[in-house]
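TICKET #2291
ISSUE: user wants both folds in one file
ATTACHMENT 1:
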Amino acid sequence: MNETQHPTKQQAPHSDEIEIDLLALLRALWKQAWLIFAVTLFFGCAGYIITKAAVTPTYQTYFSIYVNNSTLTNISSITSSDIAASQYLAETAADVIGSNSIKKQVAEQADVTESELSISTSVNTDSGVVTVYIVTTDPRTAYSCGTALMDIAATEIARIVEGSSVQAIDTPEMPTTYYQPNYLKNVLIAMLLGGALACGLVMLRELMDDKVKGRDDVEAHFDLVNLGSIPDITEAGTGRYGYYAGYGYAARGNRKTR
């Protein structure tokens, strides 16, 4: 008699393809939503605490100047030829402002150390306007350094670049908010990383889980046909009409016949 043999796990055809059930992944993410939320919130709090403890707050002020190729004192009398020449003078002015000698003079006048002072420039070559940024760890110090730098820069540029003049467009103002760090940005980045990490771990756990949880898993993993299932009697009620009732009657009958 020929016996029909169903293929077992070892007999299943070998395949290098891996099927991913997106619905199963989504169900796993939804099931672990509380964990993902908790990890995201934890990372957000950790990002704020680390930023607060490790990053020193800094304040920024700035001013803008226009470098002209003449000794004009009235900015309204600037001509197109002056603007063309100032495009080249702006680069020179930015180099002068960013020099170590200027920084040293500003630090001495504002009574701060050079390590506490940061000076950077931005040049608009189309208009010849130079914007100077001053960053320190104290708002009052930033303001005093800005006013000192504007006066020193005007004197030094006029001395180094003969026949030029500096016109102030924007003057330094007292900073009222942090320049760095950006707490909201750091917290959002930390929460994004935490949420992505939690989702990745949940999906990895779901993909690595090869336990058989139901008839669908049996058919998928072992290529077997499901012919039937045995009910779990432990889930039945313990009342008179439950599975345990029959066992109770049988046990009492055996005791009577002895």
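ATTACHMENT 2:
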Amino acid sequence: MKLIDYQDPRPIYEQIAEGYKKMILKGALQDGDPMPSVRSLASTLSTNPNTVQKAYAQLEREGFLTPVKGKGNFVHAGNELMEARKNEIAGRIAKEVQEASDLGISREELFASVDGILKEGAK
């Protein structure tokens, strides 16, 4: 997975954190899996170790990583994290559906739109 896109206006640490969040939520990284060391990931990505450390700190604050002193960082992919993320997404979807309804978009149009998005994402 490509973690850094230099055309993306977001800071590099946010891109790294978002990339790892996606991998954890998709199950590519399992609970307890070790994360690359800050230095090795910085070297792989050709970026500053402070940038990687900032990404790891963000992931830790959001509950995706657990640091173990002297051993490194480990993935924390508990069910509560997944449920919280699903609830957050459901809330955003509900808001958007309400806005679509307020604009007069029919149920059929909305479902067709969502179906198209899901088919596009499957490619």
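RESOLUTION: both attachments delivered.
EXTRA DETAIL ON ATTACHMENT 2: The first strand starts at residue 65 and ends at 68.
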